Hints:
The protein is of the alpha/beta class. The chain is built from eight helices and nine strands.
Amino acid sequence: MIKLRTPISEEDIRNLHIGDTVLLSGVIVTARDAAHKLMIEEKPDFVRDALKESVIYHCGPVVKKNEDGSWSFVSAGPTTSAREEPYQASVIGEYKVRGVIGKGGMGPKTAAGLKEHGAVYFHAVGGAGTLIANAVKKVLAVHKLEEFGTPEAFWVIEVEDFPLVVTMDSHGGSIHKEILEKSSKIAEELIG
């Protein structure tokens, strides 16, 4: 198990390969559809420092507001990443992001962005939202909550030992692409 802490250097990311298991700690930011669109169209400064050499998490968390006004994550499962394909490579380059967490993998545009900018795609286990929430130690800030709502807001969080698997690396490797190719071949053989 490889332990990484944000900020993560490009060198550390380039040393990762598909299949590597990682425990991630440090500051990361949740971002989904509305957040990615905003990052490209308006380039907000409020996430620039948090994302530099850090990680975006495709997550629509379930949160609770504590009596003291702070927030806690109740569930933090990954959401499907494919929706971010139109934006992801540009976001990685613009904000110097070193990793993206989600489920289901991403397409060729993102794969090219990972390779060009020195980033990886981490797969988080779907259906384990409550377990993953245990890795979220603190909510540091939330942006666009009123405008976007809880799932789409930018949640700047501190995580500790968040368990991940590298499924797309900075060398062009993709477990998702390999599985699709193998599955397609088997399907062709079965169908005839």
